[in-house]
Amino acid sequence: MKLALVAIHPEESARAVPLGPAMLASALKKAFPGEIRVDVLDLYLGDTAGQCAERILALRPRYVGFSMYLWNRLLVLQIAIIIKRKDPELIVLAGGPEATADYGRILEEPSLDLVLPGEGEEILVAVMGDLLRGARPRELRDSIRASPVRDLGALPSPFLDGTLEPSHYRGLLWELSRGCPFRCDFCFESRGAEGIRRIPLERVKAELLLFEASGVEQVFVLDPTFNYNQDEAKRVLRLIREHAPDVHFFFEVRSEFIDEEMATLFASIRCTLQIGLQSVHDAVLRNINRRIDPDAFEDKVLLLHEAGVTYGFDLIYGLPGDTLDGFYDSLDFALRLVPNHLDLFPLAVLPGTRLLETAPSFGLKYQEATPYRVISSPTFGAEDLEKAATTARSCDLFYNRGRAVPWFAMVVEALGLSASALFGSFAAHLDANPSEDVTSLHRDFLLSAFERQGNAVAGTIAADIVTYFGRSAELLESAPGTSEHAADGSVVVLDPRSCRASFAHDPVALLERLDAGFTDLDELALLLPERPCEAVLSVQEGLVDLEILSEQQQVRRHPAPS
Fold this sequence. Notes:
Blueprint: E1 2-9, H1 19-31, E2 37-44, H2 49-57, E3 63-67, H3 73-86, E4 91-95, H4 97-101, H5 103-107, E5 114-116, H6 120-132, H7 137-140, E6 172-175, E7 177-178, E8 197-198, H8 201-213, E9 218-222, H9 230-243, E10 248-253, H10 260-267, E11 270-278, H11 282-286, H12 294-307, E12 310-317, H13 324-336, E13 341-346, H14 354-362, E14 365-366, E15 374-376, H15 382-400, H16 408-415, H17 419-432, H18 438-452, H19 456-477, E16 484-485, E17 491-492, E18 498-505, H20 507-515, H21 521-527, E19 530-540, E20 543-549, E21 555-559
Helix pairs in contact: 1-6, 2-3, 8-9, 9-10, 15-17, 18-19, 19-21
């Protein structure tokens, strides 16, 4: 008997790992050794429903199971219609978060034979056992009930049993726990089983050893409150430090559970933290059953900052009771804490959440189909939501994709603007000057912004800083380069991952001043006379090296700040 378990990912990325279907496949292999052949198939939103159907049918399965999420719901249903039309004998099953949260409506879809809500391993084993014994899907529908897996240690590991080969993926998803102790109204996780269930440390250690031996580069930890149990989190961090020192881990954490020891442990491994700030206004957060003390939040983040840990924040715009100005306040607060990245999301009123029940009392209008985004509220109108969305796109391009962390505070201070105002101005510039070259976008925007303020010299300093850090970051992420011609016509042979860049000031002198702690652009403008020049940036032993090209092709060098 053949079963195809299908994962449909938003895009090809390091996160596109079919962990959910693999967990199900491992459970079935353990329960029915030799009786069921399970194929795990990766598909993507960029594929058409017809292409997906062809790939599924090529496996010649008797059963097909889909992991259904908010982002792939419509595509799953389109695929199901096609494969049922081409092979009416196929039995199609759907599970996952979207099938659980909106169970009633999903159950009404005629192309689905069975919908399996909740955690899937035990329920799928039971259903497949019934089907193997000859039961028909319609006979099982009324008996299916969501039920959490009480003992996660009883589930086989898809990594350790060979279902998922770590070396075959750019990154891995890694589950450490299920459940959430919090009851945030916008999150469906809060409606799950009470308490937190954890993967046993013995299995955690065994998987870490496998990850390190397999050369895995990055692991995304599926634990929405990794550090809620501080002692348990610290034990896991010590295991990572000991057994997987070369792997980069991504964690979701809560700020209130960070202490100095935990910050030091995070700093001892390769990791990035994501912290759900959502809003800086406690009155707004109370509407979704959350709280914040901005001063306490800042103190906890400072522990990470002082330890040298990389961290980012999440913010949500359109929350009940929030306003556009309130969202800008939250954005400015977040960026004052110097996050490595900042993710801004529109509020979604998801099926199955408490927010769906309270939305009418807040006057929220929202899309009734995926992606369920808020359309307007009494305090956050449709026009303001569009402005917030524009700011979010501008922030992502300018701050995240623009790798602006090293110089953002310098520029904001020199221009005398708030971060939110800067992003608004950048959005207007982008509309008039579209470009795929983010570093050039930054340069041109800052030159024009400072010139409008009558401080063109400070603008050239800012542009030079952006050029150095922007091109350096690009090189560290890029493939090997080629040769180019210098201004005098001679050939400059570029090392692998190298590029040529133009500067208005001596970049070596500029970097020396930055290394010495000079961050005021006006002060730097006084210290650094204009000296237009070209330079070659190249990656040398993991760092960016800078070489100034003089007319006589003489070279001055400045290694990148570590």
